[in-house]
Give the backbone structure.
Amino acid sequence: MPVRFSLTRSLLALAIAAIACPAHAQTYTWTGGGQSTGNTFWNAPANWGGTLPVSSIDTTIAYVSSSVNFTSNQNIANPFVLNSLTFGQFVAPFSIVGSNGLDFRTSSAGVTPTIVLTDGQNINVPVTFTNDTAITSPGPGVQGSVMFNSTVGGPGALTVGSTTSTTKSTTVIMNGVVGLTATITINRGNLFLSGADGAATGVSSFAVNQNGILTLSDNSGSNSNRIANTATVTLNGGTLRLTPAETMAGSSETVGTIAFGTGLSTVEALRGSNPSTTGPSVIIATNAPTRTAGSIVDYLGFNLGAALNATPIGGVSRIQYGISPTMIGGGGADGTTTISILPQAVGKDFSVGSHDFVTHGTNGIRVLTSAEYSTGLPDGVTSDDNVRVSSTVGGLNSATTAVNALKVSGNAKVNGTGTLTIRSGAILVGDSGSGTPQINVSTLAFGGREAMFMGQLNTSVLVQSVITGTGGLTSNVSLVLGGGL
């Protein structure tokens, strides 16, 4: 009986000691000391200054020197468990190779797994994100990039790039099969799904935030199913981009839903470097887009809305919704000034060269042609016209002048003592040039529509009018108010 009591007290003391002395984070720094004999293996003590790293949730692996052994072969454990992988600010490109993988996990102190990068790093071993993991650049003024050339998987969510404005962009290129299933978030960074195998079809949700880019790239190998056909891509001031293959087949990608959350977002279908020898670039969303108030979208491409067999074939971009987005206007036919538009969107057709309002038809998104704008703005007339003004228009003194949408550019001036109503809520400021357009009517009215002032980020408009409406106001241009709200 006394022996049992003594043993119990001993076990209790050990348990208390374990609680009082938790595991400590340990950093192991690659010194590359084995390079003199050509030894690149992790299990060589000389490559770590004498102390081998331990596979543990509290381990950090650090590469800090630019002058030693740029290849390291992970042969300690399969997988090697760690919390963080860090490349020093001035370190040259390294390659982690071998058949044994890396498994990123939350530390015993609850520290989120991280990969901190400088430019040009390569991870050529299988990677598992067991817990949520962040990949970022090391700090202000330093850009980071990494290429994953093997599989990437695990249940953890992945975040690419920092939200800190002083941190430079982080580029992550995934050329292998991506078996992740949780949400991928892109902040100040660019995630490339590329190569023949670079696909993340198990991910149902992508969040691309301000200064973030999700690039589906067929430059180094084609894959028409890089993300799931049911996936939702939410753009909060970010970009969804398709880079086509340099082949006559071109490239096509289908997503489920493109959701516009906040800020100015971009959907971009690029073209091959030689349009005469490459095929079209096509983005298809199965569903209609969704939108949160306060968001604007900019559609970019070449010959947007043209037939896919147009000449040159590689000069055609298509961005198309399986269910047409909501448009506002007179419902006029193609080529008429009353054609309906997407009131919270603009587009730039690089084959034309400037931003315009956009519509959605048989061949998807396209910019309005010059024939689809009226250049007249008669006083007292209520119409469904989309109007373009590039000079001075005066005499708007009535209370009943109304148009569907208004584009102003250059030294345009819209003058009068009356009310001008924008029935769709959409005002587009033309691409930068000489002068700042002005709207100088007594009242600029939007009714129940959201007032949208859209255009390139370096454009501005002077509004010396009282602005009225109940739908709120959104602007991505420099909006100089001289009247009031």
Observations:
- The chain is about 5% helix and 40% strand.
- The longest helix spans residues 2-20.
- Confidence is low (pLDDT under 50) at residues 1-22.
